[in-house]
Each structure stands twice: as structure tokens, then as C-alpha cells.
Design brief:
It is built from 10 helices and 14 strands. It is of the alpha/beta class and about 350 residues long. The chain has 2 domains: about 210 residues, Rossmann fold; about 110 residues, Rossmann fold. The protein starts with a helix and ends with a helix.
């Protein structure tokens, strides 16, 4: 019996030494899990003033320990889900991340989730999660524009604010959020607008959803569109998403790009059209041919803001195309990939673009 007690004591002691915060839980605080995927926030460079750096060099535990006061906001657990620059984000990681989030949020012991992520594709990941997370608990994506070694690196405060939002009961029901630069954006409306500025993320169509200043937050509005717990999309049992390609329209865009995509296995195509989702005559004809052959074609736009209107300059009914409404090309791709998991009519897919 004594050997059994001794073995248990030594096991607990070993856990305490390896995970010093494992027994430091405060029952008065919410429980937040941080899922790290890499990105600039975990990046490092040889000097503090150079533009070049390597993403995903800093592990999640070191990131948490670098933020003073963060454990006063919540009981925090960190998991290294992936470790990539967000240019290398993949559908495989999306599915892994979403399934893990759904698993965690199904537990009464988890009150919120934070995902650290590179900024290049963060809006796509946030929007994907906004459609497939099956909970109204707070889910927050965050990152930084400067690596951890940079002069004035904003990552620590950004992570602090993200945890504050995820830990706050007021955040419940706001869908997946993106928190950076003291701002709270909805996954639906946010987009990256600048290559290097810390003010890169904006929500040009609906505006900010809220603000968070040194952990103190205020919401101005609810998110637009159906999301999270009210979404009809499910990734249960899904191991891959249908291929959807984006074709960027310009002067004299060759129509054979659509043929190449279909031959490569694309089940859907998003046209980042000019103006109101427009394209030249050859591309329109190829789009109609693709649609009649069973490939869904969505008209989005390369223009930063505005709606792509159905049956305006392009008669969608004639060409059998879908108008993206206010979704940009990259988010249109995300929605179309999920829509194609089921056999749906073009009319039904169009309704999804209005609703989500």
C-alpha cells in the first residue's frame, strides 16, 4: 500500500515539475485553451529591425510565458496544433483545428478558445471556423504583423487581449472573432488590407464589432450572417473538401484557365471579377459551359468593397452563375467548398451566399 501511495506521489510531483501550471488552476477564473498554429506571432529574426523572419519558431508555452498578467485573465492551457506560416495553412489543418475546437467546447471545463495564426490567411481560417464550429462559446483568432524578436513586437499584447475576449462571458454568441490591434472583428466581415502595417485588418462593409483595450472590452454590434451554432454546415466525418479554384479576372483573361481548373479536378470556380463581378465575353462563355457541365461558378470581385449583384450587368440566370453578394473571392471559395459537400441546386447555393 505504501508503495502505491509513493508511486502516486512521485507521479504527481513529476507532473508538477514538467507542467508547473497544471495545479495552479483558479476556480474563480474561466478556462481558455490556446491552439497555436505558428505564424508571425511565433516568428523570430536575427535582429529586431529586419523585415525578414522565420514563422513558427516560438512554441506556445514560451509565448504564454512572455505575456505578463495573462494568467490573471483565465486558466490557460496551450496546445501546438500546427506550426506553419499561414501561407502554408491547409484544409487538412483546418479540419484538425475545427474538430479539436468542437471537441474542447463540448466540455463544461472549457469556456473559450484562442487560435494564434499568421495574418496572410487568417481571415479564411476564421471564416471557415465561423461556418463549422458547433458552439456559441467564444472563439478568437489572433496574430501579429511583427515577429516576437522585433522592436515593438505587438504579439504579447495582442495575445493578452485575445484571451481577455475569449474569457469574457459577453463574447458568447458573437461567432468566430479576429482580435488584433485593440480591435474585435467578425470573421464574416474582416479582411487584410496592408502588407506590413499593424492596422492591416479592417471590416470595410460592416465596421468593427468591438474594441478591447488592455483586456477591457466593449461590443458595438453583433456579427452579420448565420454562424457557428446556427450553421447548417458540419465537418463530422469529413476528411477533405472539394477543390475550388480562384481565377483572377483582368484585361484579356484567357478563358482556358477555366478548362485547366476543371481538368485538374475543380468542382467549383470563383471568378475574382472586375467591378461588379464582371468578366470578358470569352470568360463568360467558358463559365456558362462549366456550369452546364456541373462545375459551380461563383462571381466575386477583385474590388476591395461592395456587393456583387445578381442579374445586374451579368445575367446570372442565363449564365447559370452564382453572385457572391458581399463575400470576397477567398471567402467565397471557403463557403463554396463547404456547400459542395452536399448535392445542392444552384438556387440553394445562391441562398447560402445571401445567408452566410
Amino acid at each position: 500500500m505504501r508503495k502505491s501511495y509513493l508511486k502516486t506521489f512521485l507521479t504527481i510531483l513529476l507532473i508538477a515539475l514538467i507542467y508547473p501550471n497544471a495545479f495552479a488552476q483558479n476556480n474563480d477564473l474561466p478556462n481558455v485553451v490556446i491552439l497555436a498554429t505558428g505564424g508571425t506571432i511565433a516568428g523570430s529574426a536575427e535582429t529586431g529591425t529586419q523585415a525578414g523572419y522565420t514563422s513558427g519558431k516560438v512554441g506556445i508555452d514560451a509565448m504564454i510565458d512572455a505575456v505578463p498578467g495573462i494568467r490573471e485573465l483565465a486558466n490557460i492551457t496551450g496546445e501546438q496544433t500546427a506550426n506553419v506560416g499561414s501561407q502554408d495553412m491547409s484544409v487538412e489543418i483546418w479540419l484538425l483545428l475545427a474538430n479539436r475546437i468542437n471537441e474542447l467546447l463540448a466540455s463544461d471545463d472549457v469556456d473559450g478558445i484562442v487560435i494564434t495564426h499568421g495574418t496572410d490567411t487568417q481571415e479564411e481560417t476564421a471564416y471557415f471556423l465561423n461556418l463549422v464550429v458547433n458552439s456559441d462559446k467564444p472563439v478568437v483568432t489572433t496574430g501579429s504583423m511583427r515577429p516576437s524578436t522585433a522592436v515593438s513586437a505587438e504579439g504579447p499584447l495582442t495575445l493578452y487581449n485575445a484571451v481577455a475576449v475569449a474569457a469574457n462571458p459577453k463574447s458568447k454568441g458573437h461567432g468566430v472573432m479576429l482580435v488584433m490591434n485593440d480591435q474585435i472583428h467578425s470573421a464574416h466581415g474582416v479582411t487584410k488590407t496592408n502588407t506590413t502595417s499593424v492596422q492591416t485588418f479592417m471590416s470595410p462593409m460592416h465596421g468593427l464589432m468591438g474594441a478591447v483595450i488592455y483586456g477591457k472590452l466593449e461590443f458595438y454590434s453583433k456579427p452579420h450572417g448565420i454562424h457557428t451554432i446556427n450553421s447548417d454546415f458540419s465537418i463530422e466525418g469529413v476528411t477533405a473538401l472539394p477543390r475550388v479554384d480562384i481565377i483572377y479576372a483582368n484585361v484579356d483573361t484567357p478563358a482556358d484557365l477555366i478548362d485547366f481548373s476543371i481538368k485538374a479536378g475543380a468542382k467549383g470556380i470563383v471568378i475574382a471579377g472586375v467591378g461588379n463581378g464582371n468578366m470578358n465575353a470569352a470568360l463568360l462563355a467558358a463559365s456558362k459551359k462549366a456550369s452546364e457541365g456541373g462545375t459551380v461558378v461563383v462571381r466575386s470581385t477583385r474590388v476591395p468593397t461592395g456587393y456583387v449583384l445578381r442579374n445586374a450587368e451579368v445575367k446570372d440566370d442565363d449564365y447559370k452563375t452564382i453572385a457572391s453578394d458581399e463575400l470576397n473571392a477567398q471567402k467565397s471559395r471557403v463557403l463554396l467548398m463547404l456547400a459542395l459537400l452536399k448535392d445542392r441546386s444552384l438556387e440553394n447555393i445562391q441562398k447560402l451566399f445571401y445567408a452566410y
